[in-house]
Design brief:
The chain has 173 residues and is mainly alpha-helical. It is 76% helix and 0% strand. The protein contains 6 helices and no strands. It is elongated and about 75 Å long.
């Protein structure tokens, strides 16, 4: 007859398999940190683009809605997005390989589609806001749509992600 320790090992193994089948666990935590660092660097560069050579407390020689400023800011935003997604994919693939799983499995596909819908909708909405000149509501709109995508994605990750999504929406509002 099996000993209690063997039963505990079996139960732990079953739990591990069940958790892997329903949660996307290959997402690297470092990828979130790196995306935040890229965002902070991008915000610093955007500040420089908008305010240089004038002081933020003085008069600017140009306006944010000038075509050249908008183009630079959109290129910067695209660069930050590409770096964040690329780093996230690379670090997550590395973690999945270390765990002996694949990065593109059923939970990761579901996570992708749960994130994709609100983020793309929000991105298109923000492009419309920018084209209409509603610059003041762009930052809150990004927080709201990112929060919505986190709430949808929390079904395939951990419960704490849902709370983060609610905080993002509250900050956006």
């Amino acid at each position: 007859m099996k000993e209690i320790q063997e039963y505990e090992k079996d139960i732990a193994s079953i739990r591990n398999m069940m958790e892997r089948s329903v949660k996307f666990i290959s997402l690297s935590g470092l990828s979130g940190v790196m995306a935040g660092i890229y965002g902070l660097i991008g915000a610093s560069i955007a500040y420089y683009i908008v305010y240089y050579p004038s002081s933020p407390f003085g008069l600017r020689l140009h306006f944010v809605n000038e075509q050249s400023i908008l183009t630079k800011l959109l290129i910067l935003a695209a660069l930050v997005l590409i770096l964040s997604i690329g780093t996230g994919f690379w670090l997550s693939a590395r973690k999945a390989k270390k765990l002996g799983t694949t990065i593109w499995n059923k939970p990761s596909k579901q996570l992708f589609f749960d994130l994709f819908t609100p983020l793309v909708t929000g991105g298109l909405f923000i492009i419309i806001l920018l084209s209409r000149g509603y610059f003041a509501v762009v930052a809150p709109a990004t927080l709201i749509f990112y929060g919505l995508s986190l709430i949808y994605a929390s079904r395939n990750t951990y419960k704490e992600i849902q709370y983060l999504g609610f905080i993002e929406i509250a900050l956006g509002l």
